[in-house]
Amino acid sequence: xxxxxxxxxSVAAHLSPVSSSAKQRILAKNPDDVVITYLARTPLTKxxxxxxxxTTVDNLLISxxxxxxxxxxxxxxxxxxxxxxxxxxxxxxxxARSAVLxxxxxxxxxxxxxxxxxxxxxxxxxNISNQIIAGSIDVxxxxxxxxxxxxxxxxxxxxxxRIGAHxxxxxxxxxxxxxSENVASQFNLTREQLDKFAAGSFQKAxxxxxxxxxxxEIVPVKTQxxxxxxxxxxxxxxxxDDGIRYGTTAESLGKIRAAFPQWTPSATTGGNASQxxxxxxxxxxMKRSKAQELNQPIVGKFCGATVAGLEPRIMGIGPxxxxxxxxxxxxxxxxxxxxxxxxxxxxxxxVYCVGKLGLDEAKVNPRGGAIAFGHPLGATGARQVVTxxxxxxxxxxxxxxxxxxxxxxxxxxxxxxxxx
Length: 420
What we know:
The chain is an alpha+beta fold and 420 residues long. It has helices at residues 4-9, 21-27, 57-72, 92-102, 120-134, 161-165, 176-186, 191-211, 250-253, 288-293, 318-330, 347-357, 370-373, 380-395, and strands at 34-41, 45-46, 81-85, 110-114, 139-147, 221-226, 233-238, 277-287, 300-309, 339-342, 399-406, 410-418. 35% of the residues lie in helices and 20% in strands. The longest helix is centred in the middle third of the chain and has 21 residues, at 191-211.
């Protein structure tokens, strides 16, 4: 029986006419392109409840990196650096390097950790790609990983007095839920708009899961789980996302109480905000010329990424700034993008960004987003790329933009091309 990837790749491709020289440039194949030769993600499961609740971030990394090493068929001795996007794990630099070694990579494979909150996975991709472009390395792996079961986000630490007294810097003491309400308040977004957006995310994800589309993204994780009642430890295999609630409607979401009644307009709920989740994603990167030399399959291309800053109190609108910025750098228009993957930290930011940019909702998170299946902070930036390229293959389309809002007031966006 053929795999979903094989079935997708066998579809006859008839691409629509290229509409600009800028798009022609990103679709062109050049020896120095940074290409993706393998990519995959773990299932995304509910923190403290799901199948990965007892899997620490280092064990999550070992499982995924072992799969990457085995399935990519790249000689592990050629991998020079592995950048791990992670937000919450204490001692993450120890965990990353140790997990790389435990996953079967040689001592010559270096490792580092990067953290720019929700964009950490995309930052890892950019870090490895920049090293390849600069000639510092030839082959690298970008990973995003988070175990939100193991480590809760405690919010901002105590900071310098001058930060607390500064009118902008002090906004970073505001919890993420408050920033969601700030967006809803400042831009006059209603609870009904938020619930409608969230219901769409669940419905898209339900359709995708029932149709088996996620099988083109997910690699299973063999792990253990502890029964909370008996304490018994069982060996299990986790192979699908478990946060998608079938049959969700805007009406059913409308019955959920406000999560933050202390802040107006109190439109954010547990049903229209991203889920707390465990998961990881990884990509193998190298120049096109190196991939051809090594006879590696080329599934996609990383074109570039950018970051933008904004007021921390409305951090959710970051994609509405970062997306035009990255498109401007490449001379592309909104209409030339086939898919947008936006992180859905809260429905408030999703509604605002889609409306502000005038995006076709059918192009936004076609398989659903973080409201439906979760937002493991460090993993999302890499997970979105895995999802976007899989969906581009399914639709027989070419260009995706991934973007996310970033805690402390930033947005990040990247452009990727499918070559499958």
